[in-house]
Amino acid sequence: MESVIAYVVDTWWVNTIVHITTASGFNSGIEKPGTKCIERERVALLKFKQGLVDDCGYLSSWGTEEDRKDDCCKWRGVQCSDTTGHVVMINLKYKVDEKCPNKPLRVLDLAFCGLSNSVYHWLFSLSTNLLVLDLSSNQLEGPIPDFAFRNMTSLVDLDLSLNQITAISKSFRDMCSLKTLNLYYNNLTAQLPELFLDLSGCTRKTLKSLKLEKFGQLSPLSTLNLDGNKLWGSLPDFSVFPLLRRLDISDNQLNGSIGDGLGQLSKLEFLDLFGNSLHGMITEAHMSKLSGLKYMDFSFNSLTLNFSSDWFPPFQLEYIGLLNCKLGPHFPKWLQSQKTYKFLDISSAGIVDHVPTWFWDLPLNLYYLNASYNHMKGIVPDLSVKSDGYPGIDLSSNDFEGPIPLLPSNLTSLNLSNNKFSGSISSLCTLFDEYFSYLDLSDNRLSGEVSDRCWSSWQGLKVLNLANNYFSGKIPDLGSSGCSIESLNLRNNSFTGELPSSLKICKELKIIDVGNNKFSGTMPTWIGSLPNVVILSLRSNWFGGSIPLQLCKLSNIQLLDLSFNDVSGTIPKCLNNLTAMVRKGSSNSTISHIYVYYYSSTLDGFVTKYDDIAILAWKGTDRKIPSNTKLQSFDAASYMGNPQLCGPPLPNKCGEEEPAKAPDNNNHHNEDQMITIGFYVSMALGFIVGFWGFIGSLLLNKSWRCAYLQFLNNMNDRLQRRMITSPSYCK
């Protein structure tokens, strides 16, 4: 293995390149007849030597400042010019396995070096005194050869993370001093018990059984990091590693239940089982001896935490991840003992219960709370005590009711969607911290006008979702002080007025959904100045005028819905430029936001999600669809609700051509259908009532009949006189 480091030394001379090369043996100084190094360059070399660590004495041939007669051109590895005597190169080559008479190599950090599997042969020749070896973030592939670490019996810390390793070496069994092993984010595919057989170390040489309980001496391993691999199978008996402090096997494909051996790891501080297929129960027997546990993540498994109501955990957790674990139906009382957690995720935990008052006494150092997707009930109390951090709170998809609670002013995100909160949101207008970036109040019973103060204090938001409430009033002019919003959803409210043109300063907008409101005015032209818009829904408002040509500038648009407005006129041909609407999409992918929270919305009677499948809604328009454009690639159902729209892909032909008969579909309900059965019934009833109401009154009332006949005679006489007096009649 070679590594070349170039130094430019210009203190005493200019443009002298010094190469230090690690390869295959030393080069001595090259002596040329009649040349001798220049004094100032000799002094510069000596100063350069002072900045090097040379425990092995490789530069012992170099002179000293006192010995001025020493010719530096004769020094080991120094090369001078034949004509000028200037030093032009220092070439120091040596074998990396050459024995050094002084200190042995203890620490070797080769992370991010682009090393391949050839490094294993080089590692085999290293000293057995190596304690720390870091090979992370390289290009190691496949299984580790058995010989690779055979001589490293003193190794304490080994980092092989972020490579493409598929299997580990049997030589790991002899690493009796190994305390930290990092294998996260590789491609390990073995069954976990087989993998542990190769890790357990210091076993009896006569071991023939693959069962872990047959192991003799126990490994001193304290850190085991295997997350992000493809490990499968059931969990082994972790009790063979009694000194473990950190165990991370997250993001694998492990299944089965958790054995009691986990509960024997009394020194465990960090336990991460996130993202596997583990199932079964976790009881007090698993947790009662883990007094030092601070980090616990069982998320994305099918585990059930079954603790007695009076159990008091021996630990104080800082991180609690129980997403998708079963804690309910009753609220887990053991959480009352946890006073120092910074992160708590009990979402999708099957809790169907009123939240006890003690739960709302949140720790001051909280930075994330997620209790979403349960059926928690009750009224959320005052939570305005300011946290030491910048917390995010997610209470969405529960049964909370009452007014919006007072909240910490230093929130970073707030999601209260899909609950039963009611009243105004004036208490949220003070959440104007620069880190507050996400607000979702959709699907509640909130009402009233949103004050100008709220709108102005929310300009730093990335996501604002007020959909499916009872809000009213106008959106004020936002000024020009800056706007960071990327997703704006006001769908299904009663907002009025025009969309303020000041929204055009929000250049990061990707989602604009103001459908099903009472907005009016002409179709906004300034939307065309927002280059990143992916979803634009203005449906079911009172917008008028024609479709602005500026919409053709939305090169990234994937969903455009202008239906149920007063839009008229022709469809601009430049819409052919909206090529992002016709790209092939995935039926199960949704447009996601950078904050993990996904965005989806119902298009009534039209489509269930905002997928990246091409969707076009041109309801409320008429005339011919431009030909030879991408618009012909859409399904005809995308144009429903426009009875006067014609041309491909619709069956209705334009001009004198007869429209093709549409197939009868009794199961499809068209909300925009003009001619219905009720129409014909009403027409028949109207004719009958009108005709017989008039004729019947003439038959029954003689005076009305005589007056009506006299009126007809008079009209006949007038028409005859006009015709006789007309000049054209005389001709």
TrEMBL record:
What range(s) does the Leucine-rich repeat-containing N-terminal plant-type domain occupy?
40-81
Domain of life where this protein originates: Eukaryota
Swiss-Prot/TrEMBL keywords = Cell membrane, Glycoprotein, Leucine-rich repeat, Membrane, Receptor, Repeat, Signal, Transmembrane, Transmembrane helix
What PROSITE patterns does the record tag this protein with?
Answer: LRR
Per the record, a Pfam family? LRR_1
Q: Which GO terms describe its cellular component?
A: plasma membrane
Q: What is this protein called?
A: Leucine-rich repeat-containing N-terminal plant-type domain-containing protein
